[in-house]
Amino acid sequence: MAANLNDQIEQLHAMISAGKDVVALTGAGISVPIGIPDLAHMPREASSVLASESELERNPAQFYATLHRIFLDPIVQKGPTVSHRALAALEQAGAIDGVVTTNVDYLHEIAGSYTVADVWNSFNVNYCIKCGRTYPLSAMTASAIPTCPIDGGYLSPAPAHNHIAQSQPDLDLAGKLMRQADMVIVIGATGYYSNINRTARVAQINPAVTGFDRRSELNIHAPSDEVFRTFG
User: Fold this and answer.
1) CA 105, CA 110: separation in Å to the nearest integer?
2) Helix, strand, coil shares of the chain as percentages rounded to 5?
3) Looking at the predicted structure, is the pLDDT value of residue 210 above 60?
4) Most distant CA pair in the chain: distance in Å?
5) Mean predicted confidence (pLDDT) in 119-143
6) Ramachandran angles phi, psi of 187, nearest 5°
7) How does DSSP classify residue 71?
8) Of 185 and 46, which is predicted with more confidence?
9) Is the predicted pLDDT of residue 146 greater than 70, yes or no?
């Protein structure tokens, strides 16, 4: 590990310790280490599970196979990243207030975070396309073609379909966390920029240069797992 990176990690520790209300804002980059691609590298066939229910109804076997390969299998088989687990530990230790995420993979909750605003819903919310009943992530991984036990309708993941409203409680929580934050750790994110409190200190962790670079007091251009592996 380069000395410069060591110095940056020490600065990150200091910023977190100095903060009164510290919030993490995470994007696709935090989940890349377990094989979930970020938006820049998302395969074209992902659009079949991130567009509409027409593909689900037309070819359910292909729909769920794609959903498993790109999203569900990495979530279940490889689990949360080092970074997800570190953020959960920081929250449990009282060092951060919670997480706002634009991801839909539910990995923060699996890792043990309990204050999480899933602003685009998550794969832990799945709707029967017939009756509208909801089922958790485990229902999607229980069979190759998951169906509602009540009426046999196919289960549709909430994040995949824009006709399903965003969760208002999550949006409200995200707004509250962002408004009160005096320090924000941005991890693998390229969006939600305008929602950060203007007076908050910002530290960014991302291998790539992003729109957050100018806003951030600290830019650590390294994979987040490399940074958070030193937390413990």
Assistant:
1) 9
2) 45, 15, 40
3) yes
4) 60
5) 93
6) -125, 110
7) I
8) 185
9) yes
